[in-house]
Specification:
This protein is α+β, with helices and mostly antiparallel strands. The chain has a single domain (8-154), classed as Deoxyribonuclease I, Chain A. It has 3 helices and 7 strands. It has helices at residues 35-55, 74-81, 87-91; strands at 8-15, 18-26, 61-66, 85-86, 116-121, 127-131, 150-154. Helix 1 (35-55) packs parallel to helix 2 (74-81). The chain starts with 7 loop residues before the first strand and ends with a strand.
Length: 156
């Protein structure tokens, strides 16, 4: 089975003498019959990399991703099995938090699925939000910055 290659970007942040690891990735799109297997494999590989990297300093970690997997899909389930917390679910229980499917030329939000996540381990967010609330306006009319809305979490 061939899987599309993706990468993980990592930054170690030192704050008041303590390490915090930040990881960002973009998972394979869920458009084929093998996508769930690919996404579980990607989630496992990312989680293993995070575990190896953070074990040296026992540092908390945040994994942020365009996971291309719905809330009830394999990526969120895999991270949950590995002990990660989905910041949105932990702070906004019952709210949709849709981020994917934004029409960049629309005058309103058209996001219809939650496929972007902030997973944490060793720390917990007190709040989460989806942004922006509306498009930027200018001489060319309304424009959203991406076909995804963003998600934030914090303070920790």
């Amino acid at each position: 089975m061939n899987f599309e290659s993706r990468v993980v970007v990592r930054a170690e942040i030192l704050l008041q003498g303590r390490s915090f690891h930040f990881f960002n990735s973009h998972f394979y799109t869920n458009i084929t019959s093998s996508s769930p297997q690919s996404q579980v494999q990607q989630a496992g590989e990312v989680a293993n990399y995070v575990a190896q990297t953070t074990a040296l300093k026992s540092a908390p970690a945040a994994v942020v991703c365009d996971c291309n997997s719905p809330e009830n899909g394999p990526v969120r389930a895999r991270f949950s099995e590995l002990g990660y917390t989905d910041s949105w679910s932990a702070t906004q229980s019952g709210k949709a938090g849709n981020t994917g499917g934004q029409d960049i030329n629309s005058t309103q939000s058209t996001a219809s699925s939650r496929i972007d996540y902030i997973f944490t381990k060793g720390m917990a967010a007190k709040e989460s939000a989806v942004f922006p609330a509306g498009p930027a306006t200018g001489s060319g009319g309304p424009a959203w910055p991406s076909d995804h809305l963003g998600v934030t979490a914090g303070p920790f």
